[in-house]
Amino acid sequence: MSLVISTALLESIRTHARTAGSEECCGLLLGARESGHVAAVLPAANVAAEPRHFFEIDPAVLLRAHREARTGGPAILGHYHSHPEGNPTPSPVDAAMAQGDGEIWLLVGSNGAAQAWRAVPSGRLHGRFEPIALVEADAPPAAG
Ligand SMILES: [Zn+2]
Q1: Hey, which of 2, 14, 27, 66 has its CA 20 to 30 A from 75?
Q2: Is residue 30 a part of any domain in this protein?
Q3: 83-121 confidence digits (pLDDT tens)
């Protein structure tokens, strides 16, 4: 499987990461689960107590996205977050937070490099993540 995202959406995530400065930014990836196409990006506040080293997506944004997904809106493919001083590789803390439920984790590193991962029951990284291809393409607009 791969994650397909338009250049514009990926650039909006990079901009979010840059704007957040030394703090981790985060947000949701919305789209079609079957194809792995990202239709929309939903930036969220990082409400973690130490946003320089951790991220926690604003629960109000999560709630709203889940409610919209239940009522015909785009599915939640996963989420993104940045590592302002690191690589776009999930940390052991990320692995401890991950459910292993197939959710997509998109990470942006200090230099804007992006890498997509999938949280699985037993992955090669920290026993939790498998790298997946990040396909940068201009996707058609999502239905719904
Ligand atoms: Zn992380």
Answers
A1: 14
A2: yes
A3: 999 999 999 999 999 998 899 999 999 999 999 999 999
- For the chain, how many residues are written? 144
pLDDT-derived band at 138 (thresholds 50, 70, 90) equals: confident
Report how far ligand 1's centroid is from the alpha carbon of 34 (Å). 25
Residue 49 within any structural domain of the chain: yes
CA of 65 to the centre of ligand 1 (A): 21
pTM score of the predicted model: 0.93
With a CB cutoff of 8 Å and minimum separation 6, the contacts of 59 are 47
Domain containing 120 equals 2-136
Separation of 72 CA from ligand 1 center, angstroms? 30
Beta pairing partners, 113 = none
Q: How far is the CA of 6 from the centre of ligand 1 (A)?
A: 23
Average pLDDT, the chain: 94
* Alpha carbon distance 81, 93 (integer Å): 13
CATH number of domain containing 91: 3.40.140.10
